[in-house]
Amino acid sequence: MEELLRVEDMHIFFHGEKGDVIPAVKGLNFHIREGETLGLVGESGCGKSLTSLSIMQLIPKASGFTEGRILLGDKDVNTCSEKEMRAIRGNEMSMIFQEPMTSLNPVHKIGKQIGEVLLLHDAGDPKTIEARTIEILKKVGIPRAEKIIDEYPHQLSGGMRQRVMIAMAMACNPKLLIADEPTTALDVTIQAQILDLMNTLQEEYKTAILLITHDLGVIAEMADRVMVMYYGQIVEEADVRSLFKEPKHPYTIGLLHSVPTLEAEDDEQLNPIQGTVPNLGDIHSGCPFRARCEKAFDKCIEENPPLIQMDSHSVRCWLYEEEEVST
Ligand SMILES: Nc1ncnc2c1ncn2[C@@H]1O[C@H](COP(=O)(O)OP(=O)(O)O)[C@@H](O)[C@H]1O
Ligand SMILES: [Mg+2]
């Protein structure tokens, strides 16, 4: 499969209150191929949303900036103007968020909002646009689409609103869909329907998906490859099977132990990771996970490990220093 997006040495910084800059995302490298689903998982505050906003160039200039390259084909979107970005967003890549109400305009009817997306990218007479809008709404499984176009976002359920968001994101058939916690706000049954819908659309349109979630169940269901993020860095990357079968990083192992499974023995306890993700700027040396890690030793305090290449994983942990394979 062809490579669609390549992120090279991405750093995201915030402007601090005293004129300083605070690093939030620290040296990400990854790629996404056409049609695949790459999962990005980690607890709240790890930098997942910042990563997605930065790819879309949606971090406000006043709050922060990105360094590094974000290559979409041979274009580096990190050097694109806002005008160029407006042509890229929606057309080449689009994004859906956890809470559709933040992206849907409450005072405009559903039909008008989808029609506007279509108009931005592909002019057409009002009749054609309306027909396209209805077609798209049907595609995302919205019943009574002809009626829904005249309704306002608040008249729809959470699941239906998320379907409308997906319709807007997919309206111009982007090559990449970034989904940031797309089902976190939904009930489990609705969540399963939305994930199903994303799978169906992906198969039909060969869209690549960057799926961001704190939920390993969603990752297991959807992803081909997974990156685990902690304190602004990737700490483990593997294909989805190897990650669940043989997690390597103590953080990944901890995340897996904090999820209930059907196979678990009755007396097996859920074991949440102690402590919380450190605040930005709190860690100045060593491995950022060491304070929560049962396996930490001297070296972990002194030096932050590099990503170590193993057969089917990359892992940022000194426990695996001896096992590195050269690639
Ligand atoms: N505008 C901002 N100014 C300063 N810090 C921010 C800002 N936005 C996010 N952060 C911080 O950046 C870190 C990563 O945030 P985020 O990407 O939203 O995490 P996630 O999506 O993984 O929960 C958090 O510690 C958050 O507090
Ligand atoms: Mg987030």
Description of the molecule:
Residues 5-256 form the ABC transporter domain. It is found in: Cell membrane. It comes from Sporosarcina koreensis. It is a peripheral membrane protein. InterPro entries: AAA+_ATPase, ABC_Ni/Peptide_Import, ABC_transporter-like_ATP-bd, ABC_transporter-like_CS, Oligopep_ABC_C, P-loop_NTPase. With 327 residues, this protein is of the alpha/beta class. The protein folds into two domains: 3-92 and 174-323, 3-Layer(aba) Sandwich (Rossmann fold), CATH 3.40.50; 101-173, no CATH class. The chain is built from eleven helices and twelve strands. It has an eight-stranded mixed β-sheet with strand order 6-7-8-3-9-10-12-11, with helices on both faces. A four-stranded antiparallel β-sheet has the order 2-1-4-5, covered by helices on one side. Helix 3 crosses helix 4 (126-139) and helix 6 (158-170) runs parallel beside helix 7 (188-205). The longest helix has 18 residues, at 188-205. The protein is globular, with a radius of gyration of 21 Å. Residues 48-49, 180 line the site of magnesium ion.
SS field, number of helical segments: 11
Quick one: how many beta strands?
12
Summed over residues and divided by their number, the pLDDT gives a mean of: 92
The CATH class of the largest domain is Alpha Beta
Largest sheet: 8 strands, mixed
Task: Work out the count of structural domains.
Answer: 2
Q: Identify low-pLDDT runs.
A: none
Helix content estimate = 25-40%
Per the CATH scheme, the topology name of the largest domain is Rossmann fold
Q: CATH homologous superfamily of the largest domain - what is it?
A: P-loop containing nucleotide triphosphate hydrolases
Strand order of the largest sheet: 6-7-8-3-9-10-12-11
What's the overall geometry? globular
Ligand inventory:
adenosine-5'-diphosphate, magnesium ion
How much is the radius of gyration in Å?
Answer: 21 Å
What is the chain-wise order of helices and strands?
Answer: EEEHEEHEHHHHEHEHEEHHHEE
- What structural class is derived from the secondary structure elements? alpha/beta
CATH-scheme architecture of the largest domain: 3-Layer(aba) Sandwich
Estimated share of beta-strand residues: 15-25%
